[in-house]
Write a structure and sequence with these properties.
Elements lengths: L1 H5 L13 H16 L8 H10 L4 H4 E2 L5 E2 L1 H5 L2 H19 L6 H13 L15 H25 L24
Antiparallel strand pairs: 1-2
Helix pairs in contact: 2-3, 2-8, 3-7, 3-8, 6-7, 7-8
Amino acid sequence: MRRLQLAPAAVSHHHAYPGGLLRHTIDLMELAQWVGPRYEGLDSELLTFGAFLHDLGKIEELASGGESGYTDRGQLVGHLVIGVQGLDDKVRVVAESGAEPIPQELRLQLEHLILSHHGSLEFGSPRIPQTLEAIALHHLDNLDAKLAAALAVIESDIGGDPHWTNYQPAMGRKLWKPRP
């Protein structure tokens, strides 16, 4: 839990600060609880749990403290695979404890949520979202990341224009500054 509290969600882009991963995870879980009940057939609990799990692999992928960067494991394996391995470890602990085992279908759904949340192959997902929950998780994750990144740009802009940020090459645009 301590590592989650300190971990950034990214090296740059969104939530790239100590505690950013926890902030992103909580925001995403709240979005999941708000969106889930609005769509028939969408399992809100599964979506919320997927929101919790989707980026936990970043705890091992990203170096915390000091200079932002990737761990060797993060560079070589990545947070999606690390996340599925972590889920597998926890499923094994439950099975070995003598408690009721995690149903295989639930395990597959959770693995799919982790592996597909980037949304497309070109953005690093080995699978595209194929369930309602995976589609929702991908879009909610993207929404939270994009808005957090835009807000960070607006808050840190040092340009002289009171209405517009400087051009942001990573976003391909200037951003309108809301009036206080």
